[in-house]
Predict the structure.
Amino acid sequence: MKLSSIFSFVAVLGLTIAAAPQKHIKAVTITKTKGFHTVSKTRGVHTVTRTRSHTPHTPTPTSGVIQGFDVSHFQKTVDFAAAYKSGARFVYSKATDGTTLIDKTFAGKSTAAAAAGLLHGAYHFARPSTGTGATQANFFLAHGGNPASDGKTLISFVDLEANPKDPQGAGVCYNLSPKEMVTFIADFVNTYKAATGKAPMIYTTNSWWKQCTGNSKAFSSSPLMLARYAKTPGAIPGGWAKYTIWQNSDKYTYGGDSDKLSGGTAALNALLQ
């Protein structure tokens, strides 16, 4: 064999050997993630990654403000799980309206809220011109407004605000005098309390309460849910020394209205039935 042929053969053989897989080399990088901590181990040059992670929930603050929200049939899609992960810890769902309307989404929303880990309660939209306070309270109690004493269900609230059919006109107070309105509210509160053992929370605005009840101080035993879409809750009406929940916006990220509970865990637990 010619010398040049031998060199060519060796060159080709060298390339073949260099290209051959080196089966005896085992190179692995293992990355394990727990929470926010990552540990990596590397052997050789090949990499295999195994990851285990979780997204931690925001803890419930023991003091200060706790985020919540309220919903009704107007909200077709509500992400209860995402709300909980973002820090929300309670939600209210509309159950009834006046003396005839039953919110058909109430049961489903309550179940979904509980599954997400949220404390949940019911509310009634009052229409003082269409039946007595006792009649509406009994209607509410019969259709979702009677809370269970299970450590997960909140006392209910009654929504007292401007007449949707005439929010700016003479009918804003449902054509009732302040005295008649106070009688309606007292009938509702007393009927609900007799059935559940606790007074319901009262939802209202400062302006409506002053105009339609004459700024009544008769209901300070009920917690106050004050609605005001602004940077601060503003003045507190009636005989309340403070609000329990401030509804600060009608545009909550995960559906419905945004509610801010003041007083931390103790205040939230005080709302349990």
Q: What stands out?
A: Residues 1-56 have pLDDT under 50 and may be disordered.
